[in-house]
Amino acid sequence: MTTLLSRDQYAVIAADLSFPVKAFIDGQYQPSKTGKTLETINPATGEVLANISACDASDVDYAVDVARKAFDGGEWSRKHPSERKAVLLKLAQLIEDNQNELAVLESLESGKPISECQLTDLPETISTIRWHAEATDKLYDQMSPSNEEGIGLIVREPLGVVGCVLPWNFPLMMLAWKMGPALAGGNSLIVKPAEQTSMTALYIGELANQAGIPAGVLNILPGMGPDVGEPMGRHNGIDAISFTGSTEVGRLFLQFSALSNMKKIVLECGGKNPAVVLSDADNLENVAEHVVYAALWNMGQNCTANSRLIVHKDVSEELLQLVTVKLADWKTGDPMDPANQLGAIISREQYDKILGYIDSAKKEGGKLIHGGNAIEAGKGLFIEPTLFANVTADMTIAQEEIFGPVFAMMVVDSDAAAIKLANETCYGLQASLFTSNVTKAHKYGRALQAGTVSVNCYAEGDITTPFGGYKLSGFGGRDNSLMAHDQYTEVKTIWIDISADISDQ
To answer: Within a 10 A sphere around the Cβ of 446, how many other Cβ atoms?
Structure first.
C-alpha cells in the first residue's frame, strides 16, 4: 500500500530530480530535428522547470519510419504473447520502483496535489499496465460455425504503428490506458504527450529500455498540437490514432483521417456530466461527500467531473447545506503539501477561462454559494472551489464544459424532470445517480445517456469496465477492459476449404 511522505521529503525528491527533456525515439533520447524547445512551467509557482524538445513534422516522419521498421522486424510484434507479458510486467515493476519520483514530477508539471499523484495516478498507472500485460496471453482467437466443407478462423493481429495523443490532466494514467493494450497487442507506438506535461512520459522511455522493450517500439514526441499531433493525424504511415482531449480537437482527427489513409480513430472527448439526486435519496451526508468529490477531483480538470448537480426539490435545501459544509473542508494550496486536496490550475489560459465562467454565472443570475475567487499565491494559478445555486438550464455554466473547480446546482420538481435535464446536453460521458429505490436505479440508470453511470457514488468504474462516452464524448472504441484491445488489433478471417475428397488418400 502506498503511503504519503511529508512535504519536506517530497521537496528533497524534487531537488534531486533530473528532468528528461529530449524526445525519445528509437530507444534513445535525442533533440528535435530543428533543435527548438518549449518551456515546461510549474503552474503552482510560475517557475520554468525545463526547456524540452519541441518536435515537428520532421520528427514525426522519423519516428514513423523507426516504428514501422521495428514493427516489420518482428522483434516485438511477432514475439510470443507470454514474452511481451514478461516485459510489460517488468515495466510495471520499474514504474513502481520509481513511483515517488514520478509522482513528484507529475505534481510539478501539472499542479496536481501530490496526494492524488501518489495515491491515485501512480497506483492506477502501474495496475493498468500489469492488467493488460496479464491479458496478453489470454486473448484467444475464434473459430466460426461451419459445415464439413470449410473452417473459418477469426484471428486478431496488431494494427502496426499506433499514435497516442494524451491530455494534460492525467498524464501517466492516460499513457498507461493506451500504452498497455497497444503494446500488449504487439504494436509499435508513437506518443504525443500534452505540451504542458511531457516529462513524465519521457521518463517512462528510459524505464521501457530497462524493461526490454525493443528500440523503436515506443517513441515519445513532445511538442505542440499543430506541430506534432496534426502531422500524426495526417500521416499515411500511422495506422490508428487514440486521442483523449477536447471535442474540438477530436473533430480535427476525424478530418485528418479522412484526408489521409482513413486510419482508425478512437476519441475520448469532453463531458458535461450530471450528478442526479432523486426525491428518495437517503443518507444525504454521503451523497454530499460524493457530489463534492465528483465536482472537485483534480481541480475539476477531469472529463467526468460532475459539474451539474441536479436535485429534486424535496431534498435540495438539506443537500445544499451539507454540500456547503463539505466544500469548506477542501484545502487549496501548494500541490507538494499532502494536506492540500486542491492544487494549481494547469495554465494561465485555463485559469482565465475558468474565471470567465464564474463571471458569466454571476451576470446570468446564478447565486454564488461558495468560493468564486482566485487565490493570491505569488505567480501560482489557484481558484477556490466554487458552487452556484439558482442555476437554470440555459445558463452558460450549465451548458459548457468548465474544466475547473466550479459546479452548478439546479432544482427540479420531479424525478422524471431530473433525468430529462441530465440528458439535455451534447455530451454523454459519465453520470451519477442517487436513489434508495432499486427499481429507479435500474430504470433511470438505463435512461441516462452516458457511457458510465454510477449509482449512489461517483465512479468511472475500474480497469475491468470499458470507459468511453455517448454523443460528442466518444467515438470509435473504449479504453479499459478487454474492449480496449479492440482499438489496437485488426480482425482477420481465414477460410480454409476442406471439401476435397480424401477417401482414397
So the answer is: 9
CA dihedral 71, 76, 81, 83 (to 10 degrees): 180
Nearest partner of 221 among 69, 475, 38, judged by Cα: 38
State the distance between the two ends of the chain, measured CA to CA, in whole angstroms: 65
- State the DSSP string of 373-407: -EE--TT--EE--EEEES--TTSHHHHS---SSEE
- Residue among 268, 269, 384, 401 flagged as catalytic: 268
Assign 67 a pLDDT band (cuts: 50, 70, 90): very high
pLDDT class for 232, splitting at 50, 70, 90?
very high
**Residue 303 catalytic?**
yes
Kindly write down the DSSP assignment for every residue of 452-496, as one continuous string: EEEESS-----TTS-B--EETTEES--BSTGGGGGGGEEEEEEEE
**What's residue 377's pLDDT?**
81
Closest Cα partner for 165 from 234, 90, 78, 99? 234
Q: Torsion angle, CA of 358/362/365/370, rounded to 10 degrees? A: 70
Place of cell 440555459: 394
Question: Model confidence over 199-228: pLDDT tens digits?
Answer: 999 999 999 999 999 999 999 999 999 999
Percentage of the chain lying above the pLDDT 70 cut: 99
Q: CA-CA distances (angstroms) from residue 41 to 100, 171, 195, 380?
A: 20, 15, 10, 10
Rg (CA), the chain: 24
- Map out the domains of the chain as residue ranges: 7-269+483-492, 274-455
Note the pLDDT tens digit of each residue in 480-499.
999 999 999 999 999 999 98
268 is catalytic: yes
CATH of range 274-455; options 3.40.309.10, 3.40.50.300, 3.40.1390.30, 3.40.50.150: 3.40.309.10
Residue 447 pLDDT greater than 80, yes or no: yes
Topology of the domain comprising 7-269+483-492? Aldehyde Dehydrogenase; Chain A, domain 1 (3.40.605)
Please state the separation of Cα 63 from the chain's center in Å: 24
Place of cell 500541490: 335
Quick one: CA torsion of 175, 177, 180, 183, rounded to 10 degrees? -70
**The one catalytic residue among 106, 195, 303, 384:** 303
